[in-house]
Amino acid sequence: MPRKPEYTGISIKTELAQDVEAFIKEHSTKYRSLTHFIEDSAIERLKDLRTQLNELPRFDRINGDDTGVLIYDRELKDNKAVHVSVRPQGVICDFHQRGNCEHIKYALKLPDVQEMIKKRRKEGWKIEVSEDEIS
Ligand SMILES: [Zn+2]
After folding, report:
1. DSSP string, 77-135
2. From the CA of 94, how far away is ligand 1's center (Å)?
3. Ligand 1 centroid from CA 117, angstroms
4. What is the pLDDT along the chain (135 residues), one digit of tens a residue?
5. Nearest to 86 by CA among 101, 66, 103, 102
6. What's the pTM?
7. How many angstroms separate the CA atoms of 122 and 131, rounded?
8. Radius of gyration of the chain from Cα atoms?
9. Phi, psi of 29 (to 5 degrees)
10. CA-based angle 7:15:31, to the nearest 5?
């Protein structure tokens, strides 16, 4: 036997409730009641947000400066901004304090980081990066 659903009461402004009820009354929609309308709206909104979240990439480039690039990492719990530095000794993730993590992989694909590495090498920096990571 299916479990009987449980309900919770939420408050919305009377004006909005009346607006919705009047709309339902005046138009032929699938909605039977204010509750039906609100429930359906919440379900649709949740679906939209979940889709949006799933479609967002893990990394985004926030900005760059002459020391490197700032990357947004959606999988990190707290401080989601990670700086990747282009230094004379190599490309280093300031978060992981090393040169071989997902942030480095992402940073090395960014055109501005690739340009920066090329420029620094011309200036004499011996930046060690495995060549297949830079196109
Ligand atoms: Zn990292």
Report:
1. SS--EEEEEEETTEEEETTTTBS-SHHHHHHHHSHHHHHHHHHHHHTT------GGG--
2. 7
3. 18
4. 567 889 899 999 999 999 999 999 999 999 999 999 999 999 999 988 888 888 888 999 999 999 999 999 998 988 899 999 999 989 999 999 998 999 999 999 999 999 999 999 999 988 887 655 554
5. 66
6. 0.59
7. 16
8. 26
9. -125, 180
10. 50
Which amino acid belongs to residue 61?
A: R
CA of 74 to the centre of ligand 1 (A): 13
Q: Residue 52, class by beta-carbon neighbours within 10 Å (0-12 exposed, 13-18 middle, 19+ buried)?
A: exposed
* CA–centroid distance, residue 63 to ligand 1 (Å): 16
Distance CA 96, CA 100 (A): 9
Centre of ligand 1 from the C-alpha of residue 106, in Å = 10
Residue 98: how many CB atoms within 10 A of its CB? 12
